[in-house]
Amino acid sequence: MKGEIAMQNKDNFWWFITYSAGAGEEDVLFSLADISGSIGTELQELPAGGAHLRAYYHSGKDLSFWKDKLLSAMKEWPSVKIDDFGKVENQPWNVASEEAFPPLSVGKGLVVLAPWHKGKEPKDRIPLYINPGCAFGTGYHESTQIVLELMEQFMKPGMTTADIGTGSGILTIGALKMGAAKAYARDIDPEVIEEVRKNCELNGLDMKKIDLRTGDLLKDFGHRADLLTANILIEPLCTMVGDVPAVIGKEGLAIFSGMLEKEKQTFFAALSEAGLKPVGELVKGDWWGVAAKAEA
Prior knowledge:
Layout: E1 2-5, E2 13-21, H1 26-35, E3 40-45, E4 51-58, H2 63-74, E5 81-89, E6 104-106, E7 110-113, E8 126-129, H3 142-154, E9 160-164, H4 170-177, E10 182-187, H5 190-202, E11 210-214, E12 227-231, H6 234-240, H7 244-248, E13 253-260, H8 264-273, E14 276-284, E15 287-294
Parallel strand pairs: 7-8, 9-10, 9-12, 10-11, 12-13
Antiparallel strand pairs: 1-3, 2-4, 2-5, 3-4, 6-7, 13-15, 14-15
Helix pairs in contact: 3-4
């Protein structure tokens, strides 16, 4: 058994969900854990091939909440099956494994690091410090890397940015470290907000530049941004894309990720209906992201 445990002492217990897949699909299991908001995982490789993954979740939400998130993500992988679920009491081994989260270079000039790697940053890269397991978006998932790399292409100093479904806050942190003057960050989960604040402080950011609040996609957002990012699943992306032009205007840009490459035609249709056109795209593994702006 090998594991990646990144849990927090404030929980008296954690929920767990165990699910399995066939040989060669271990990366799919980890992707599902990341997407569904897992705070830690343990992988057991089976002698006959395939693997079980036990994913742990905060007890602040009902188990049904986490099961629904996982089942929604599993629709794209019918071969994955849920085997078991329940709760486990808080134990003293809830410490993140340093080996599980090594420094990760992203794009041309970024590096994602866990806090215990501070001081080991390559001098030619901008460090993004993230506490692993705090929320979706540690930087180790391909969909997050896609957004960061597209941001490197399109970010300009002085921009105002908006990150919808901010998770760990990594995209907001990246935007500010790439020169954003103001950053809006929204997430529907109120428990995420404090984690984002801690990650921003870990990076030494000026909290006066960050408007951090709970929010359901772009409902009641009411602000303009030069660059909007959203690294979430295709269903909420399709729900919110029609509201994006009012935020970015004619000159702004939006970067969308969290979709599988096979879903791109569906999202291209949603972009067109919203009056947006693709201006760049990127694929990593099975994952796909796209940058778009208003049609002329």
